[in-house]
Amino acid sequence: MSQLDRAELAQQGALRADGLRAAGVELVALTFVDNSGIARVKAVPVDRLWSAAAWGVGASNSFDFFLATDDIVSGTHSRGPVGDLRLHPDLDALVPLAAQPGWAWAPAWRYDQEGAPHPQDARALAAAATARLAELGYNARTAFEIEWVVTAADAPDDPRSATAGPAYGYARLSSQAGYLRKLVSTLAAQGVAVEQVHPEYAAGQFEVSVAAGDPVRAADVAVLTRETIRTVSEQYGLRASFTPKFAPDGVGNGGHVHLSLWDGDRNLCAGGDRRFGLTETAEAFGAGILSRLPALLAIGAPSVVSYLRLEPHRWAGVFRVWGLENREAPLRLVQGPAGQRDRAANFEVKCFDLTANPYLVVAALIFAGLAGLSAEESLPEPVDVDPGTLGDAVERLPTSLADAVTAFEADAALTSAFGPELATTLMDIRRGELDRLGALPPDELCAVMRYLH
Q1: What is the distance, to the nearest Å, from the Cα of residue 272 to the centroid of all Cα atoms in its chain?
Q2: Within 212-275, where are the H helices?
Q3: Are 418 and 120 in contact (CB under 8 A)?
Q4: Start-to-end C-alpha separation, the chain
Q5: What is the DSSP-derived secondary structure letter of residue 114?
């Protein structure tokens, strides 16, 4: 959405409002995800949807400087309490919420009051990255894995209060079978195609995987899926946590990203003459991501608590390597079964988590891949063992948010693609979180962050 045709938007908003009223919708939630990964919201009555579509809903530009804790930090481009932005719902992404009767939801674009796109609109950046890929004749298909821990609402610090049974065990699924059934049916009613749901490793932990789609749509689905999980959990007397580390000694929640590169209907991650069937183009794209993983962590693992999760031998991917079906590699090539690889093959990025803004994540991955294409990069030798057993032969990814910030600021391709205002503000936010939370001991840090995202 690059310019505003206000008359057309008003007309389309009125038409969509008619359909929503017929479906019993009274209110529409408009969300954007801030630079700390929190989904912020304004809501309008359905009768005002036409106005929100054409003229937007006011929202302070100070949201760009919010931490996840709701502290507001200063930064190079901060205007403090001065100024205003407008939230315009994307009517093409509007959906009634099956989990919240009487409500609909739409992700919003952010514009200034003159109708110009806001340079810190993460969703617009994801759209720009997708458009840049299209200019070169390619498209990407992307999906997020959502992992979360549930607890009983009256015992929010104990995952064992809600589920029992071994990791990945049927007993754990059975203990929450009704809850999971309701969750999947609710997501389906909202247009989210669930591919699988299962118990995960940690106590009280589950994962849902959804079908891949356009990168902007994938980020939208990540937001919608997480909020649906939160709502359905509350309806079942549960509380959902998406934090990268629920407790210091536990296994964390990841936010793995799956991404494949396509030329029309041809999957470039399969059927090629490079290793494991990669095409030359897909290898260069993947190499661009791998070489920039230290910088990408400032986007995909953007919180102090993220680095409690990034430990060796936990399938989190903490060494800068790649490999075929290697779950200890941060860049894992997923081939899929023989006979389906032309559709299934993709790269999985395992070192990211759900404190990240998903729009920034897909944008960063695409821009990193494009940089790899431009430089004709190639992947190093793949690793087919646990890289944690290789000692100094492999490079450790940043072990702190501060190191990731340094890597991001040194990466000209990413900072240029993000633009000076957003690139600078993101790192101002990261430093603000370091100042606010960096000195906390792990148990206190986990407690502070447990239910924020």
Answers
A1: 29
A2: 215-235
A3: no
A4: 27
A5: T
Contact (CB, 8 A) for 340 and 375: no
Q: Is the pTM of this model over 0.85?
A: yes
Q: Which two tokens stand for residue 102?
A: 């009487």
Please report, in tens digits, the pLDDT of each residue of the chain (453 residues total).
457 999 999 999 999 999 999 999 999 999 999 999 999 999 999 999 999 999 999 999 999 999 999 999 999 999 999 999 999 999 999 999 999 999 999 999 999 999 999 999 999 999 999 999 999 999 999 999 999 999 999 999 999 888 888 999 999 999 999 999 999 999 999 999 999 999 999 999 999 999 999 999 999 999 999 999 999 999 999 999 999 999 999 889 999 999 999 999 999 999 999 999 999 999 999 999 999 999 999 999 999 999 999 999 999 999 999 999 999 999 999 999 999 999 999 999 999 999 999 999 999 999 999 999 999 999 999 999 999 999 999 999 999 999 999 999 999 999 999 999 999 999 999 999 999 999 999 999 999 999 999
Nearest to 60 by CA among 86, 36, 21, 96: 86
Two tokens, residue 334: 């997923």
Residues recorded for the chain: 453
Characterize 3-25 residue by residue with b for buried, 16 or more Cβ atoms within 10 angstroms of its Cβ, and e for exposed.
Answer: ebeeeebbebbeebbeebeeeeb
Q: CA 126 to CA 219: how far, in whole Å? A: 9
